[in-house]
């Protein structure tokens, strides 16, 4: 009985929507982090262009070594979920939510503490924000490919 009630109340969405929700979350986080990075650099940098270049240079390894792997792991998990309409909050697993909470908490603390000069925070936030933005784009590309693949599968069975 309780299981049936849970299934009725569960905010289930198709997997492509779940992938889009993940992309939106990464995109929103990217916007917020990049905004802080731009503010810190514009306020404190003598040579804005140099700080932006350093931020962009830091983005490449940060995305390739960390965020691409994390995004691929979550996308693979979403695609392989057994439910046809998983819960809309299933774009992360429990470990992912714990990690995200920790990252948000640390981001807030670092941005408010004065242990690190704001110029360095700005350059780091540019690298981090671009990595999050690239992860969002990665989700979108993978989601579109997933929809196309599923559409081809249904067309071949008809």
Give the biggest beta sheet: none
Encode the helix/strand succession as letters: HHHHH
Share in helix: over 70%
Task: Quickly count the helices.
Answer: 5
Number of domains: 1
How is this structure best summarized?
The chain has 158 residues and is mostly helical. It is built from 5 helices and no strands. Helix 2 runs antiparallel to helix 3 (48-79) and helix 2 packs antiparallel against helix 5 (118-157).
Describe this structure in words.
- The protein has helices at 2-9, 15-44, 48-79, 94-112, 118-157.
- The model has no long low-confidence stretch (mean pLDDT 88).
- 82% of the residues lie in helices and 0% in strands.
- The chain has one domain.
- The longest helix is centred in the last third of the chain and has 40 residues, at 118-157.
């Amino acid at each position: 009985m309780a299981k049936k009630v849970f299934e009725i109340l569960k905010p289930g969405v198709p997997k492509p929507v779940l992938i889009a929700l993940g992309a939106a979350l990464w995109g929103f986080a990217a916007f917020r982090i990049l905004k802080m990075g731009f503010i810190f650099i514009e306020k404190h940098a003598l040579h804005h262009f140099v700080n932006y270049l350093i931020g962009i240079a830091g983005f490449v390894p940060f995305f390739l070594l960390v965020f691409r792997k994390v995004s691929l792991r979550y996308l693979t998990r979403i695609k392989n979920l057994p439910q046809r309409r998983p819960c809309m909050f299933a774009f992360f697993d429990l470990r992912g939510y714990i990690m995200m909470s920790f990252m948000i908490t640390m981001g807030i603390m670092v941005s408010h503490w004065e242990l690190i000069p704001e110029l360095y925070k700005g350059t780091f936030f540019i690298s981090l924000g671009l990595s999050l933005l690239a992860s969002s784009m990665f989700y979108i590309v993978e989601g579109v490919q997933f929809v196309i693949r599923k559409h081809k599968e249904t067309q071949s069975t008809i």
